[in-house]
Specification:
- The protein is α+β, with helices and mostly antiparallel strands.
- About 50% of the residues lie in helices and about 15% in strands.
- The chain has 22 helices and twelve strands.
- Strands 4, 5, 7, 10 and 12 form a five-stranded antiparallel sheet that branches. The protein has a four-stranded antiparallel sheet with strand order 6-11-8-9, with no helix packed on it. The protein has a three-stranded mixed sheet with strand order 1-2-3.
- Helix 9 packs parallel to helix 12 and helix 18 runs parallel beside helix 19.
- The radius of gyration is 28 Å and the shape is elongated.
- The N terminus is likely disordered.
């Protein structure tokens, strides 16, 4: 895809989607870029990647469901409808409202791999192990959660069949044990693993139809694990195989293994968050699709295998002309389920979203505003518009302001951006702040007109001349303090002396090289208050200090600001290269405003 992109074969919209991929180097984003090459415009490229992936998931699940029994299929269908009604099924809402298609693509890869693995499991255990390792490594290039689910399901399938054979033959087969070791190794050794692990701890919005707590999700996950484990146990202890039902038994094993893996993955992420603080509530909740969807399959499976309830098999039903209509009705019903999944009201916004995206693109093409010069922010319609409008259409670099868009759709400091692209009539569309005529649905407003800008301390920025002692050379994102104490002497304007309740706002970041790194940073002014904050990778890698200022502090021409980091360390002392700078705190921006300033 990179070769094709540089050969200028991909059309313009494809280039814009691929510009966003620098931060997320995963194959799901390349897939969206490929859809853009086919002519689908903007959000439609993501929609088609998500819709087709979701279709693959449902086709794989119901192909295996068909092999179990008609009773299973009917019950699974009913529970799927309940799932969509209660939780909104995750797919449609997350795809539109939450820019969540990478996991959906990963789910499709997961199910395709499991479908192939089911066939190999019946033929050769060695081939199964080799394929399982390769499949887990490949799925890891899409999304972490489906990869964990795939690895868990493959290990459960292998473990049950391997132990069953050991118990029957009393012979130890090393290939089974080797597979149980190699499959998880394929996750850890995947070059995308560490980056995906970091991204998985992000924040955002949750689009469930119910107000589900983490404890509620943990309870549902535990139920799924228990039911799945019971089915696996029944499969393990069953006296002998039934050749007539071999395919049905293998499919049942796959459902139970995948159900156990989905529930265990959610419980593991919940436990990590509770015990270590690594991740976020959102990161756990947003992956709930696997739990609720698999409940719709595991519950009837548990009834069939554990309680001994047997329904009519799909094959038997097809042999009876009177029952073939039932198959057709089941297919129609499932088609309606998929349609309902995507035809939520938010999907109706897609034409307008595409129009907004095109207008944002025209801002860059006709006015040359992109990168650090502009970002898109508006209250409507969804996070994906704000995110893709800024990252893909305006090609803005990642920074504190851009990352804040993911949280609430608004930059932390609007005045620090030379221009903000927004929708006509938005809160940012203030009288007298527009820059030029509207472009379609969007307008361009001057950031400094909206609120006072900050002094910024990146390379060549306005605040660099005011750096005093204890700083290294300014870089693209800001400047590192080199030592445990650094100072900045900023000018005080006449209008700032007349502010009511003045405060000093300081945007900082910290040197956190290891997962358990912590850095204490203290910001203070002479004769005034100070604020202390502890950075860590689980809670905050950047922070906005707000230090109250007295009238006395604003009487002079300048204000001396001290930034201390008592636990600063050199990268060399941590075995991270030859850098001997004493790194603790980093400085991005600073300004004096009245308390409560937007």
């Amino acid at each position: 895809m990179e070769v094709v992109r540089h050969a200028f074969i991909i059309p313009l919209q494809g280039h814009e989607w691929m510009a966003e991929m620098a931060y997320y180097p995963k194959l799901s984003h390349r897939l969206a870029g490929l859809f853009a090459t086919l002519g689908w415009q903007h959000l439609n490229a993501l929609l088609m990647a998500g819709v087709l992936s979701a279709a693959v998931v449902w086709v794989c699940l119901f192909e295996h469901a068909r092999r179990v029994s008609l009773t299973f299929l009917a019950l699974g269908l009913g529970l799927s409808l309940i799932n969509i009604k209660v939780t909104r099924g995750a797919f449609g809402g997350e795809l539109i409202d939450n820019f969540f298609y990478p996991q959906i693509v990963g789910e499709a890869v997961n199910l395709i791999a499991l479908t192939i693995a089911v066939v190999l499991l019946r033929r050769s255990r060695r081939d199964f192990v080799l394929f399982a390792v390769a499949a887990v490594a490949f799925c890891g290039c899409f999304h972490l959660v489906p990869t964990l689910q795939l690895a868990g399901a493959l290990m459960a399938m292998l473990g049950v069949t391997w132990l069953r054979e050991v118990l029957r033959t009393r012979k130890f087969e090393p290939i089974g044990l080797a597979g149980l070791i190699a499959i998880p190794a394929a996750i850890v050794l995947n070059p995308f693993f560490s980056k995906m692990k970091f991204i998985a701890g992000n924040n955002g919005s949750v689009n469930l139809g119910v107000n589900l707590s983490l404890e509620g999700l943990a309870g549902v996950s535990a139920l799924l694990v228990a039911l799945s484990a019971w089915v696996l146990l029944v499969h393990l202890l069953r006296p002998a195989d039934d050749p007539e039902h071999e395919e049905a038994d293998t499919s049942a094993l796959m459902f139970a293994a995948l159900g156990a893996a989905c529930g265990a993955a959610m419980l593991a992420q919940y436990a990590v968050l509770k015990l270590t603080g690594d991740g976020s509530v959102y990161a756990v909740l947003k992956h709930s699709f696997g739990v609720f969807s698999m409940l719709a399959f595991v519950v009837p499976l548990w009834g069939l295998t554990v309680l001994g309830v047997r329904g009519v098999s799909a094959e038997e039903m097809l042999a009876d002309s009177r029952l073939r209509a039932g198959v057709a009705l089941a297919v129609v019903a499932q088609t309606m389920v998929m349609v309902a999944l995507f035809q939520r009201p938010s999907v109706m916004d897609v034409p307008r979203v595409n129009a907004i995206m095109e207008d944002i693109r025209q801002v860059r093409v006709t006015r040359g505003l992109h990168g650090d010069a502009a970002m898109f922010s508006a209250e409507f319609p969804t996070p994906v518009v704000t995110y893709m409008g800024t990252i893909a259409m305006l090609q803005s670099a990642h920074g504190a302001n851009v990352l804040s868009l993911i949280g609430d759709g608004r930059p932390d400091r609007a005045g620090d951006v030379p221009y903000i692209v927004t929708l006509a009539g938005d809160a940012y569309d203030k009288p007298g702040c527009r820059s030029g005529a509207p472009i379609g649905l969007v307008v361009v407003v001057a950031g400094p007109c909206l609120e006072p800008p900050s002094l910024r301390f990146k390379q060549g920025a306005s605040g660099v001349p005011y750096l005093r002692e204890g700083w290294s050379a300014p870089e693209i994102g800001g400047v590192w303090a080199d030592g445990k104490r650094s100072t900045v002497e900023i000018p005080i304007a006449d209008w700032q002396r007349s502010l009511k309740s003045p405060v000093l706002e300081v945007a900082t970041f910290a040197f956190l090289p290891l997962p358990d790194s912590k850095r204490t940073v203290i910001v203070s002014v002479p004769g005034g208050a100070q604020e202390r904050f502890v950075f860590d990778r689980q809670k905050a890698v950047n922070h906005g200090f707000v230090v109250p200022l007295s009238a006395e502090a604003l009487k002079g021409q300048t204000l001396l600001v001290t930034i201390e980091s008592p636990d600063a360390a050199t990268p060399k002392s941590l075995g991270l290269g030859e850098d001997t700078r004493m790194l603790g705190a980093g400085l991005e921006a600073m300004r004096i405003v009245g308390a409560g300033q937007p």
